[in-house]
TrEMBL record:
<dbReference type="InterPro" id="IPR018022">
    <property type="entry name" value="IPT"/>
</dbReference>
<dbReference type="InterPro" id="IPR039657">
    <property type="entry name" value="Dimethylallyltransferase"/>
</dbReference>
<comment type="similarity">
    <text>Belongs to the IPP transferase family.</text>
</comment>
<feature type="region of interest" description="Interaction with substrate tRNA">
    <location>
        <begin position="31"/>
        <end position="34"/>
    </location>
</feature>
<keyword id="KW-0460">Magnesium</keyword>
<feature type="binding site">
    <location>
        <begin position="8"/>
        <end position="13"/>
    </location>
    <ligand>
        <name>substrate</name>
    </ligand>
</feature>
<dbReference type="InterPro" id="IPR027417">
    <property type="entry name" value="P-loop_NTPase"/>
</dbReference>
<dbReference type="Pfam" id="PF01715">
    <property type="entry name" value="IPPT"/>
</dbReference>
<feature type="site" description="Interaction with substrate tRNA">
    <location>
        <position position="123"/>
    </location>
</feature>
<protein>
    <recommendedName>
        <fullName>tRNA dimethylallyltransferase</fullName>
        <ecNumber>2.5.1.75</ecNumber>
    </recommendedName>
</protein>
<feature type="site" description="Interaction with substrate tRNA">
    <location>
        <position position="100"/>
    </location>
</feature>
<comment type="function">
    <text>Catalyzes the transfer of a dimethylallyl group onto the adenine at position 37 in tRNAs that read codons beginning with uridine, leading to the formation of N6-(dimethylallyl)adenosine (i(6)A).</text>
</comment>
<feature type="binding site">
    <location>
        <begin position="6"/>
        <end position="13"/>
    </location>
    <ligand>
        <name>ATP</name>
    </ligand>
</feature>
<keyword id="KW-0067">ATP-binding</keyword>
<keyword id="KW-0819">tRNA processing</keyword>
<comment type="subunit">
    <text>Monomer.</text>
</comment>
<dbReference type="GO" id="GO:0052381">
    <property type="term" value="F:tRNA dimethylallyltransferase activity"/>
</dbReference>
Length: 303
């Protein structure tokens, strides 16, 4: 497998499509929000990127479920495993493309803990605690239940506590999250922070001018609950708040822009964690054109 990862607005899709074209490959999206239908502009699906010179590169795990549905990491892992074998049987190369580090790590390392069920009662109780209280509760579990966990955000911290609670109640179950690393070459797109920030800001303004507000408005009119859109985060959260008149337009844009910058920083932090946890990443200069990076990747694979 070839993996192209990087923060938002780094040019992952453009590069992955070109690599797939040269290697007779198929692209597998590794994005926790592109699985939802009709959430196109806000998630940056850029489906026109998959066609080059009238040739459309096959892609997978985009538009899998309806907007408003629940789609968990474990479901993604199952869907990924379901489509991977047929791609290989066709003699084609899977090219994974995305920025959702947790999903990437799960499929590369074969995490088993994703099968641990949601505990709604525990989640409701944890929602009343502060971030500091959650972190303290998380630290009280033995290291064998928490060493693998990502507790960088409130949502992930709650899930980590949920999993650790399950493991402590079922100590004989092997849900350590350890698995064998498939044969994979992992490439990451790296950008100077100031360039990344400028790309994010420019792209946000372009999307706001080209239908992103109307996209969220259509989802609300169709009956997708506002609470669900807010749960999806970033563009869908802040635009929903704007459309519900909870935020004025300038405040919405400022807060959304800040949130996306923070998200990109968290993405890079997670990728560095992946490296520390044993997944080697070959970092590429994201300022180089996709065509140049494609040749670099192909040369590296040959060597």
């Amino acid at each position: 497998m070839i993996v192209i990862l990087g923060p938002t607005a780094s040019g992952k899709t453009r590069l992955a499509v070109r690599v797939a074209r040269r290697l007779n490959g198929e692209v597998i999206s590794v994005d926790s929000r592109q699985v939802y239908r009709d959430m196109d502009i806000g998630t940056g699906k850029d489906l026109d990127e998959y066609t080059i010179d009238n040739q459309t590169i096959p892609y997978h795990l985009i538009n899998v479920v309806d907007a408003g549905s629940d789609y968990l990491l474990y479901q993604y892992q199952q869907d990924f495993n379901r489509i991977l074998s047929p791609i290989l049987e066709r003699g084609r190369i899977p090219v994974l493309c995305g920025g959702t580090g947790l999903y990437l790590e799960a499929v590369l390392k074969g995490h088993q803990y994703t099968a641990i069920p949601v505990n709604e009662e525990l989640r409701r109780a944890l929602q009343t605690e502060t971030d500091e209280q959650l972190l303290e509760r998380f630290r009280q579990f033995p290291a064998e239940y928490t060493a693998w966990a990502d507790s960088s955000t409130r949502k992930r911290r709650i899930r980590a506590i949920e999993i650790a609670t399950y493991l402590s109640a079922h100590p004989t179950t092997d849900f350590s999250g350890k698995g064998s690393l498939p044969d994979a070459a992992v490439f990451g797109l790296d950008l100077p922070v100031e360039v990344r920030r400028q790309r994010i800001s420019d792209r946000l303004r372009e999307r706001l001018q080209n239908g992103m507000i109307e996209e969220v408005e259509r989802l609300l009119e169709r009956g997708v609950p506002a609470e669900k859109l807010i749960f999806y985060g970033l563009e869908y959260k802040f635009l929903t708040q704007y459309l519900r008149r909870e935020l004025d337009y300038p405040t919405m844009v400022t807060r959304l822009e800040t949130a996306i910058h923070q998200f990109a920083k968290r993405q890079m932090t997670f990728f560095r964690k992946m490296e520390r946890d044993g997944i080697p990443i070959r970092w590429l200069d994201g300022l180089q054109p996709a065509e140049v990076l494609t040749e670099l990747i192909l040369n590296e694979l040959r060597s």
